[in-house]
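Late entry, written up from scratch paper. The run itself happened at the end of the previous shift, but nothing got recorded in the book at the time, so transcribing now.
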Amino acid sequence: MSAEATNPEAHPEVRPELRRRGRTRLDLRRLGRAALLGPTSRDRLPDAIGHVAEAHRAHHPDADLSVLRRAYLLAETSHRGQMRKSGEPYITHPLAVTLILAELGAETTTLTASLLHDTVEDTDVTLDQVREEFGDEVCFIVDGVTKVEKIDYGAAAEPETFRKMLVATGNDVRVMSIKLADRLHNMRTLGVMRPEKQARIAKVTRDVLIPLAERLGVQALKTELEDLVFAILHPEEYEHTRALIAAHAGENDPLPAIADSVRTVLREAGIAAEVQVRPRHFVSVHRVALKRGELRGSDFGRVLVLVGENADCYAVLGELHTCFTPVVSEFKDFIAAPKFNLYQSLHTAVATPEGYVAEVIVRTRQMHRVAEAGVVALGNPYTTASADAAECDEERVDPTRPGWLSRLLDWQQSAPDPDTFWSVLRAELAQDREITVFRADGGTLGLPAGASCIDAAYAQHGEAAHGCIGARVNGRLTSLSSPLSDGDTVQLLLAQDASSGPAAEWLDHAKTPAARIAIGSWLEAHPDRAMSTTSAARAPLSVVGARGGGANAVADLPDAPVRLAGCCTPVPPDAVAGFVVRGGAVTVHRIHCAAVAQMRAVGRTSVAVHWRATADCRVTLLAESFGRPHLLADLTEAIARQGVEVVSATVEPPVEQRVRHTYTLQLPDATGLPALMRAMRDVPGVYDVSRA
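Output as recorded:
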């Protein structure tokens, strides 16, 4: 284990708020920074469990430390004689992992399981012994961590390892917390391995573990892992960034003076706040350098303002934007709209009279704790669960489990092979924002940003979504490829034909792993139907009646023939307008028809029109429905039962399993139109009927 992670004398810095409380506490972020900047003395090991207990008490003053001491004694005796590749006693590894978690504020059960996380895998200690000594909860977590330890799967080792990790984490999110801390300590001590093995482990850490840490909100682990991976995979860029930071350390840093100005402004405004300067970590400095080119002194860190209440955050923002020049494009409100990983803060940037631009982060102290430690800061999610639930082998409901994690657990079971699982896992973890959409029944769906109605269909209906033919978004009919926005209400329309299946084009619009895997599996199982149903255009099917109907409108133009316009098919008691066309005929339109404006624009003669006392009429209706056999016959029968004559009927080719019918109908009485439309809507498969 590296001295940077364990020797407190090498890093005397402590957090100011902890000095005031009379406790000395290690700063995990500074430890990682010091580890990158250079080696320090390895003369002695830490005072064993003492540093863990001290760090734990800083977050949990009333914690029972006796269980940690008992766990340490069992781990130390069981690992005695085992050595790490670095030459250190093996017990230094579980100690370092536990210290990382203690610094993040993990509760006692997690720390106990962390001390014991390798005992069942690498020693003679059994799960029954752990259960007897420390209870069901610790045993459950240790068993979960044991299941994710790497085994020999050949080329599929990493994918299968992380598939198992997801399954274990699904039962308890604390399993992943221990796994992340375990990887962090292994990355800190990676220098003893061959360069090619360092690169392989660093790539897996970059592709999977760092995104997982980001998703769990554990920024303290994520940033140090990023720096360690950066040093291994990009040594030249890392050395350049290191040189930039070292050169900046010898210059006058403008950020402390800016922080003092912020303190003065907030003090004069009567806002109780703590103002700190937060140095950027290596990868952050590198990204800023790529974005801005030459770096200025204020680019090497940010100003952090900590307050007590949410309202204070906005009060601070108002003062900053009043007393400094705000950079409007840099403002982000993650309090009103938290990120998917629980992160909340206000981000802004202000320009000083000296010409510096400083980024400022404003958050409450509770937000700060969650921003640094994520789900680790949420404590034991099962404190209110019954003892029976802890003993149950079935999956338990974790109230801290993020929606994205539940989605991963759902689709990983359907991934057909390790390569598919691995590629889709990386694509899912690359998503950095989540939206919430509302279902028609009042429930909600959590989806990645950019998700379409196809993703919503598979998230809500699983494989039944193969028969989805359309959707209504915020009440309006739309195609399945339509992207969804945060807060949309979506109603999915499913076909009644059980043989329905997705089109190949769906893969172009599906963003979630669940949708992509389900669609791909269906297409592979039905190669003869994998071709798009919309690729070949077909002519519409038309059915024409034996005779037409006479007009039931009368124009104030003697002997002039009158006909009802086919574009809007007016019926009594519609408000209408008549226009003289070629041949002296009068064409009657509904008053709001688009053709009325065109007739007036070209100077057509307007003629007054009224309805006859007899109420027979001709009307054109559009019926939208799911595609199924015998639909045209059923609709025609429903129309006939209303005593209505079909003048003509047109059926358009199916589009995404939706069919559009156009009927021109002769009604004996216009007052029967509403009943006719209701009868057509009642035909199975029809979801909308409207006037043309």
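The radius of gyration is 34 Å.
(Scratch paper discarded after transcription.)
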